[in-house]
Amino acid sequence: MEKRISIPNKQETIEAYVDLQHQTHGIIIMHPHSLMGGNMDNPVVQKAQQIFARKGITTLRFNFRGVGNSTGCFGEGIGEQDDLIAVMDYLNSQGRNRLDLAGYSFGSWVMAHAVQKINDTHGIIMISPPVAFMDFSSIQKIPGLKHVITGSQDEFAPPNLIQSQLPHWQPDAQLHIIDGADHFFFRAFTNT
């Protein structure tokens, strides 16, 4: 069962929901773009949380700075990377030493950049990384990338553009294309 918590991050406080399961495996789930209404209550983020919680994995979803009850303001993706690192530190302090990451849209962009600075992730899932909307050119490799999920009709994360990035990011990563789904996965949850 999820519990609302606050996580300190330098001068900021991060609002989060955590579901601490018994195993030491945890996953952090990141939301879409803050300036476009993205938050941890996004349906895709909630669906991901439910899927992993049912598997007995500790889940943590959080609001980036300036969203909901998280303090601060939009950090151009840089401050949001600091938010992710603070959340990872929190889960490590709770005995969750095997951490996976899942980022949806902007959350996947933040995650892809943050993992260039850290080494303690096991598995990474990108959900609709917005390669047609945001600059991923500085990302040469994404250690731990296992799965990339997008919709066949996703205009921000077109399958063909993602397919062209996978050899650079992680050649062994699997691309999953949800037929008929757009960037927001309307009417696609029955296929996930």
TrEMBL record:
Q: Which domain of life is it from?
A: Bacteria
GO MF entries: hydrolase activity
Q: Report if keyword Hydrolase is assigned.
A: yes
> Which keywords does the record carry?
Hydrolase
Q: What is this protein called?
A: Alpha/beta hydrolase family protein
* Species for this entry: Candidatus Magnetoglobus multicellularis str. Araruama
Q: What is the lineage of its organism?
A: Bacteria, Pseudomonadati, Thermodesulfobacteriota, Desulfobacteria, Desulfobacterales
